[in-house]
Amino acid sequence: MCDTPFKSPYPHKNTKARHLHQKSDSDESINSETCSTNSNSGSLNDLTIVALFDEQQRLYLQRLKDRDNLCEGFFNCAEQTKLLYDEWEKAVDECIRLRNEVDKKIDDGNEANRSLKNARKMLDEEIKKRKLAEQQRDELQHQIAKFCNAIVKDSRNKLVDDAKEQISNLYTGRMSFGDPDRLSAIKEVNSTGSILSDFSFSRSEDDLDSSRCHHRPNKEWTKRQQTDNLEEPASKKRKSSTSKAVDIGTTETVRATTTLTVSKDGPIKATSIIESVPRSDMEHLAPPDLVFESWGRQEEKVSSQFQDINSNYRQHTFQPKIVVMPNTCSVCEKNIRFSKTALKCKECRLMCHMECRDLMPTPCVPAMNTPSAKKFTGTIADYTPTSPPMVPALIVHCINEIEQRGLNELGIYRIPGSEKDVKGLKEKFLTSRLTPNLKEVDIHAICGCLKDFLRSLTEPLLTQTLWQDFVTAIRSTDPNDVAPALYETISRLPQPNRDTLAFVILHLQKVAQSPECKMPTDNLAKVFGPTIVGYSSGGYSGDPDKLVEESRSIVKVMAHLLNIPGDFWTNFIKVCLTPSTHKLQQTPSTDSLLRPTASRFYTPRSEGRFRKKREGKFFGTPPAYK
Amino acid sequence: MASRKKTLLKVIILGDSSVGKTSLMNQYVNRKFSNQYKATIGADFLTKELTVDDRTVTMQIWDTAGQERFQSLGVAFYRGADCCVLVFDVTAPNTFKSLDSWRDEFLIQASPREPENFPFVLLGNKVDLEPRAISAKRAQQWCQSKNNIPYFETSAKEGLNVEQAFLAIAKNALAQQNSTVDLYNEFPDQIKLTNTQKTSNNGDSCAC
Asked: What GO CC terms are in its UniProt record (chain B) (predicted)?
């Protein structure tokens, strides 16, 4: 076939195909190729077509079979894949489960660490206390021994039997109180130093107190401790305050207030505030020339304690709350987990972990009215709490921070902070419910934030309406008239403005007194004048001459305000203390002071002051109350 | 002829508070430096006569308060300035960062004829102090980005470079003044007015 000339392939093939077809179908497969080529050629006849059709059909059937095979293979493959997929899914589930477990374990670990830390802290405290107690015990023992020796040796003959017995009882009693076993029980734990020892870290301070009190001969102490606990079994913070009022003159009262705050695992704070107030009306504004002489003596003490007043004058009112919505702790800025118990302050709506409660920024400044929370500018009243002292949270927190860090910063309030930081900080204060953490912020940015806040108010602190009055007041020809006129004008300010002004000025006076700041009153007046006093017309209109003239008056007004004695301003800030001091006055504590010492022991009301005064002399007061 | 008309140069010193604006001015005019730490109220000015290119000019230097709240007041003094001096403290990065806003503020408020060609001079003050926060290179880069502003590193305390800086300021201010005066001369309005008057006179005579 290959030898045939190229010219005549078709006829030759055709004949051959015809011939083959006639012969048999069985041979067709051999020549299938030839046939298919024939189909392309123009010379077709019926027979070839039939043969071709058969051929096609055969092929078609074969293909079909192939396809079925293929399908089957595919199905198998798919099934295998499905199985694999299932297995993979299971593995993923397992993975998630394991990860969750790991998370949980980490959490547990953290929790354990935290409690361990707490426990360590408590343990340390206890050890310290124990050492002190031991010291006291030794001292007392020593004294008693000496005392007994003296009595027994020198005046044995004169003593009655009863007395002798008492003395010997006393002696043995004291000795048993110094039972080394009891105290060394803690020592053992200390010596092992192991955190895995079976010493219960969860024992609270109260437990330890009362357990130690058991071996004191004075049973009443223990009893009182217990009643104390019964009174407020659930509360975690006990506060006992006393106040004594002593009449000194006809118009003044000197009041000493001691506040003793005992928190469960935090430091124990005792603060004394000694103040003199006009007796007639506490709310009434006391002109500085009426302030009792004792201010002179106490002034320094009070001003040094001003920080304490600041931080004590409004404490948080915590309520335990189970967290449902995700929330952030305002102390450590970490999330509070779902279904954990967190503390929420009723007043300022801040939330924190149970562990963070002692680090909550104080004072608590009640949340401002909701509508203004979204606005950026407004009058001062839009930002202040509704109860006195009406000072916005931003101002309180900024000033607290500045007083902690900035009082020896050169050019504080003069040197500008970075504009971005200032804006960011202000926005954080005004829009978020959290109190921003100020510890890391540049001090000048905090100052800038404070200034910017005061400046952006729709009306300056001294108000537009009273602007002219203030300027007239300082322009008075007689210098003696200036102060009364200013006092009068200040008293006409709305309360939010007045309280905030007082708070800011008290702070600025402290800044002015710091030599490192190099910001004496006249510098501060220049810096704060335009911010606090403002211009009569808002400062954006009028001719330059008038503006220059005004700005000089503004600075003078500010300087005068800064020169008003601090006592005057303190009156506004201390308003808040009034209700609490009133309450304290009604307690019978004053009477108990006048009783003989023996009966004073057992007056539960005078406990706080008593512990403070007598500690260590009659019975070992836990040193924590010092 | 035009330059002799006005030999008073108005120079404005701008910059953040406590960068040393008042000190620079005092050092230049009175050759004194005071260690007093005193803020400026509103604005204040001192004048000094000096000779630039054989011409005696009176330089009126306006020292403004850097305090944010005084800025509304300063605006009134920006108008008619011949040169603006921007000052920053080389030890305080914030004061350098706010230069842009000072420059923009000035250009908006003073609205000079050609804002992009208005002469500025940048002074990096307090070079006697350590540590430096802004390098000369960085300041120069800023100057280049702002149409090649001249830059001087000064110390008001030691009187370093102050004289040179103010001389450059005076030259820049003078150049600015000359160009604006030329601009005024190009306006043909006044001449046209007299022309129309003459023509109207002619008309009258015709009618007569």
From this structure: late endosome membrane; lysosome; phagocytic vesicle
